[in-house]
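Re: protoporphyrin IX containing FE structure - here you go.
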Amino acid sequence: MSQSAPLSFYDEIGGHDVFVRLVHLFYQGVAADEILHPMYPEHDMDGAEERLRMFLEQYWGGPSTYSQQRGHPRLRMRHVAFHVNPEARDRWLGHMRDAMDQLELAPLHDATLWDYLQRAAHSMVNTFEPTPPPAPKETP
Ligand code: HEM
C-alpha cells in the first residue's frame, strides 16, 4: 500500500511559480521605495530576488536550494549590516502586502503566510534610530 506524503504549504499554494511571482512583485515595490531601495545591491537586484525566493521556498517545504547555496539562513545576523528600523520594517511589509494582494491566495493560505512574514519582519528590526539621510551622490 502506498501512502502519499501530505502536501507542503509550498505545494498547496502553487509551488515555484507562486513564489517567483510573490518575490518579483515584492521587488517591484522595493525598487520604487526611496528608503529600502538604497539598501539593496544596485547591480544585483536579480540575485537579491533569487535569495529571498529560495529562502521562502525552503522555509515552506519546497526545495532546499537556499541552504545548499547560502548555508544556514541566520537571517538576523545577515541583516545586521542594514538599518532595519520600524519604518523600514513597515515599508518592507507594505510591499509584501501589495504583492500578496495580487496573488489572491485562499484566505487561510493568505493568513498563514502573512502571519509568518509579519513575525519575521518584526524580528529583523535591529535599530530604533531614525532612517539616516541618503548618502551624497559621488561627483565625478
Ligand atoms: C524588516 C525589513 C527588512 C529589510 C529592510 C530587509 C533588507 C534586506 C536587504 C537590504 C538584504 C540584502 C539583499 C541581498 O543582497 O540579498 C536582505 C537580504 C535577505 N533578506 Fe531581508 N529585509 C527585511 C526583512 C526580511 C524578512 C522578514 C525576511 C524573511 C522572511 C528576509 C529575508 C531575507 C533573505 C533570505 C535575504 C538574503 C540573505 C542571504 O542569503 O544573503 N528579510 N534583506
